[in-house]
Every structure is written in structure tokens, then in C-alpha cells.
Design goal:
By secondary structure, the chain is an alpha+beta fold. The protein is built from three helices and five strands, in the order H-E-H-E-E-H-E-E.
């Protein structure tokens, strides 16, 4: 969370958007580990492709929560959105999908899934579910 906070502060100076990072009160933040730099490209996409042109009207939210033994991380922006079924030429989502695929090969008991909700003109939400993260 500190790495993401530092990144957002720097980009906020550059583009002028607002952001919020919140964790559910019952979430064991101090003992929760996620693979390094898995969220970073998603947050970068929210800033650079989502809200950078909106300046003060741009908003990025990063939320962390728990559903049973599952850890949930969501990155939401109010930017221009896109059609997630269309092919992209960027590296962020492609690299994140590849990292998830490789990480899922390492453990049959724990897995990561990524869900994208977006449409042109309506922002985007990317949800990572870390299944059985605390068992």
C-alpha cells in the first residue's frame, strides 16, 4: 500500500486528480502479502489512461476487502473507460494477466482471478480476487 500511495502522490502532482485508498477495518493489513507489483500496472493504467486528462475531476479508488478466505483488491477510475473485449496494445494488462497465470501455476490451493468492468465513457473497475489467501 505504501508503494501505491507514493506512486499516486507523485502522479497526483503531475495530473491533479483525486484518489482514495481504503481497506476494510477488519482486514489484517499488517499480515497480508500480495505478489510484488501485481497492482502497480493496474493503478498506472487507471491514472494514465483513465484520469490523466480529467485533472481535478479525475478520481481513482483503490479498495481492499475480505470475502471469507478471499482477499479482494479493486482499482476503480472515473475515466473514459474502454471495451475490455477489444484487443489492447499496451503492456500493463497483458503483463498482469501473464503474472497471474504464472502465479496460479505455483499453487493449486490459492489462485488469483482478474475481472474487468468497463465501457467507453463510463470509467473502469478492475477486481483481483485472491482465493483462499488466508488458509
Amino acid at each position: 500500500m505504501r508503494i501505491l500511495e507514493t506512486y499516486l502522490l507523485l502522479e497526483q502532482l503531475r495530473f491533479g486528480f483525486r484518489y482514495e485508498m481504503a481497506a476494510a477495518p477488519d482486514l489484517p493489513i499488517a499480515t497480508t502479502e500480495i505478489p510484488a507489483f501485481l497492482l502497480q500496472p493496474l493503478v498506472e493504467n487507471a491514472v494514465k489512461h483513465g484520469v490523466s486528462d480529467l485533472h481535478g475531476e479525475g478520481f481513482v479508488r483503490i479498495g481492499f476487502s475480505q470475502e471469507n478466505a478471499n482477499f479482494i483488491a479493486e482499482v476503480t477510475d472515473n475515466g473514459k473507460g474502454w471495451d475490455p473485449t477489444a484487443g489492447t496494445t499496451g503492456y500493463g494488462l497483458r503483463l498482469t494477466r501473464e503474472r497471474i497465470r504464472l502465479l496460479n501455476q505455483l499453487s493449486a490451493h490459492q489462485s488469483i482471478t482478474m475481472t474487468i468492468h468497463s465501457q467507453p465513457g463510463a470509467g473502469a473497475t478492475i477486481r483481483l480476487q485472491f482465493t483462499n489467501w488466508w488458509t
